[in-house]
Amino acid sequence: MFSNKLAIATMNYIAKTITILGIAPLLSLLSSAVYAESPQTIIPQTTSEIMAREGEAQKYLGAINSAQLTYYLEHSRFATKIEDLGIDMPSGSNTYQYHILEEGEEIRKIIITAKANDSSVKSYTSAIFLFSIGESRKAIAGICETIKPSIYPPMMPIAPPYPSIGVLCPDESHAIVEFDRKVTF
After folding, report:
1. How many CB atoms are located within 10 Å of the residue 64 CB?
2. Which is it for strands 33-35 and 173-175: parallel, antiparallel or unpaired?
3. Rounded to the nearest 5°, which phi and psi values hold at 100?
4. Rounded to whole angstroms, how far apart are CA atoms 67 and 63?
5. Which of 44, 126, 137, 140 has the smallest CB count inside 10 Å?
């Protein structure tokens, strides 16, 4: 039977070998195991469990962005409360707290955050920016994800210089392109 130190040393050796070979996904799976006091007990927090929790935030922010675009089309302004959007979702869960951040009287953008309640998952900030193009308007929506797990959402995303590209994410974050939305109205 392995001792706790031997198990940790073995895991470190495997992790270094995997890093050298460039097999990063396996490294994250190995490094996410949490050791309890007993040498025989390993409490896994698997990559798939973490991804499922992060997927919750991505799904909810995508739904909020879509609902905000619909709300804007109907009311010529963005909703300032999740409850106003008419979608069935919590303002928080065991994993995340969701907030709409008002930008004063600014009606050309809205920011929504998903702040992680624990440091094992990533946090998110989504934004919707409006552009006037001739007589029409275009809305660009996107979600930024912290590069590493964090209880702090990314700083405010930056409006793209042209409406043909997506939301620009600040340092220490990146865009989740499958949630990019471009709507002309």
Report:
1. 25
2. unpaired
3. -100, 125
4. 6
5. 44
